[in-house]
Fold this sequence. Notes:
Strand content: 25-35%
Largest sheet: 6 strands, mixed
InterPro entries: AAA+_ATPase (IPR003593), ABC_transp_ATP-bind (IPR050319), ABC_transporter-like_ATP-bd (IPR003439), ABC_transporter-like_CS (IPR017871), P-loop_NTPase (IPR027417)
Shape: globular
Distance between the termini: 31 Å
Family: Belongs to the ABC transporter superfamily.
Domain ABC transporter: 2-231
Bound molecules: adenosine-5'-triphosphate, magnesium ion
Protein name: Dipeptide/oligopeptide/nickel ABC transporter ATP-binding protein
CATH superfamily of the largest domain: P-loop containing nucleotide triphosphate hydrolases
Radius of gyration: 18 Å
CATH class of the largest domain: Alpha Beta
Structural class: alpha/beta
Strand order of the largest sheet: 5-6-7-3-8-9
Pfam families: ABC_tran
Amino acid sequence: MLQVEGLSKSYGRGARRKCVLDAIHLTVNEGELAGLVGESGSGKSTLARLLMRLEMMDAGTITVAEKGAFYDTLQIVFQNASAALNPSWTVQASLREPLRLMDGNRDAYIREMLGKVGLNEKHLTRLPSELSGGERQRVNLLRSLLMQPKLLICDEIVSSLDRLIQKEIVELLRKLNEEMGMAMLFISHDLKVVQSLCDRLYVMEGGRIVEESVKQDGVWNFSHPYARRLFE
Ligand SMILES: Nc1ncnc2c1ncn2[C@@H]1O[C@H](COP(=O)(O)OP(=O)(O)OP(=O)(O)O)[C@@H](O)[C@H]1O
Ligand SMILES: [Mg+2]
């Protein structure tokens, strides 16, 4: 679904130039739940922005198994659901917007999809400020799901939510993965969440992938000292 090879990115010029991503290699297979963990500042969101073509890379290749248009294949959900939603738009208006090119009955489709993320019609007339943090993140998630992407990138989407709501959203993602066969790159600094959701895991440190591990019989094996330390 997604293959990244030798991806590098620096910011700044001259003496202030700083390498943020250093020859990243990463694969997400079709329908796979892949995780990316790493400390704050290790480059996770920068990688996500490059994958979404929101910024240019310096070197490397990103291959997406595109079926149709790029943004029909790949979608992203950002951490800050409040900032991602227009504060003066109702939920319904926010959900209609990505569907503006869709043929057929958009509102019927929205109503049908609401249930998938645990929302209902009473939420449609509300403004983002009239929703809880968990509900806002569900709306945010649904906006991306409406396009039925083959790969969804989630950048710290549960980090600001309490443990219970986190668990609900993680369960929801698992269900969506099963029902829609959607692959995911789930980015988080929360190892617990990533370990419970994902089958493949990348650990990032200072702009490098230092570990790749695949869960075998429910067990993770790590060889790199940094990854081991994290998981201990
Ligand atoms: N536009 C930019 N210009 C200069 N430096 C940047 C820019 N964007 C990010 N950086 C730097 O790149 C590094 C990686 O940032 P990034 O946001 O990718 O980290 P992250 O792993 O997502 O962290 P967090 O877990 O806190 O979200 C940081 O040192 C950051 O200061
Ligand atoms: Mg980030």
